[in-house]
Amino acid sequence: MKRLVIDTDTGVDDAQALLMAFAHPDTRVEAILSVAGNVGVDKTTPNILKVLDVVGRDVPVYRGCDRPIVFTPESGEDAHGNDGLGGADLPASSRTVEREHAVNALIRLANEHPGELTLVALGPLTNVALATRLDPDLPQKIKALFIMGGAVHSMGNTQNMSAEFNIYYDADAAHIVFSEWPMLTMSDWEITMRQGLTGEQAEALRSAPTPRGAFFRKITDYTINRFGLEPFLLPDPLAMAAALDPECVARAEKRYVEIELTGQRTRGQTTVDWRGWSGKTPNANIVLEYDMDRVFALLRAAVS
Ligand code: BDR
Ligand code: CA
Prior knowledge:
With 304 residues, the chain is of the alpha/beta class. It has helices at residues 12-23, 41-55, 102-112, 126-134, 138-141, 165-169, 171-180, 189-194, 199-206, 211-227, 235-244, 292-302, and strands spanning 2-8, 27-34, 61-62, 117-121, 142-148, 184-187, 249-259, 270-273, 284-290.
């Protein structure tokens, strides 16, 4: 049984990834941590509760950091609608959030279950970085870390063209994580662009005759109106797929990755030692190809 802690700035694709985790048979979601990113933490936290309503599961939710560690750049509010869930206007949940801060909860859980928890970070790495600073042995206590983040050939999606949103939004946090964690699995923006779904596949998910299918349709209307149906991009669902089912990863390479912090145009860029000339030990397992049949199977299960 895989035991997950999910850290998320719950926007549209984060919510899809959460549905996938809850549908996976060999996985137990132990805790969900919120963080600011796509929208503020005052929205990402209740968005998690709304997803729990949809799946009918009780999982402790911990509110995390409300801003990056040092510097807050422009937000991605536009891409996910005003509420972060595509303006789907979902009813507020009556569920409650735990009192403990997400950073403290992550440290506590890792210490209570050393070597047992897999951490999946779907947003900026603020919580993970602060937890790492407070407990420098955290990387040794977490079984594996999967992230959605980066643009490994510098084709990003932010105003710093070479930087991807999650890394760009809190580049300092990303720097801490990439410096302190010996290895993480990285699903970046470029593979997201290469391996989207067809319109037909997306519509198959959107028309699933279930409450989860209806939720999926509601939250994706906005993005489809804004960006079109095809390719139907899966940033966080791809990262989640790698965590849930290693067989989803068809090809990956271990490389040394460093975060650019000072470039006026490039802060947040993930610089990759593709040739191995730095002599530095690889710290990231970069996913270069997914088995999209397997990923699609996880998505189908998520809306069934
Ligand atoms: C990442 O940024 C957010 O907009 C998405 O939720 C995803 O985690 C893509 O760059
Ligand atoms: Ca996200």
